[in-house]
Amino acid sequence: MQTNIFTRTLLAATTTVALAAGSLAAAGTSFAAPAAAQPAAVSEAVTPQAVNNLGLNATQAKKVQRWLKTYWNYRGSIDGKLGTNSWKAFQRCLKKYWGYTGPIDGVVGKGTIKALQRLLKDGYGYRGGIDGIAGPGTKAAFKRFANAH
Question: Within 13 Å, how many C-alpha atoms sit on residue 81's CB side?
Fold first, then answer.
């Protein structure tokens, strides 16, 4: 009889330990691999950085903005950041005199740069090709343009 009691006690203890270990193991695996987080819904469109100073510092960009305000209907602030509205005003100039054919959208794309290069070639020492790439020669000539205004 004593053997039966000892066997039952041992069996009960072993079962309890096994159940506890199994519960802990299951709990451990549930925390080890959390469910993938769902991204939050976004209702706004993502827009690219709108400021493109093409190598100008803030002082030089302010000079360009003052020139744009005087001659090309720029209505934004003189903040030294050539953003969309600055480039829209510049595109109006480039469209009228320098062969820009794109939309007045404030995007500094290849067409805007090509027209800017024509302007810079005419009087600001740009010697490179009209390729629409704002490389070091374009940026240096644009700095000369800014400093002249």
Answer: 8
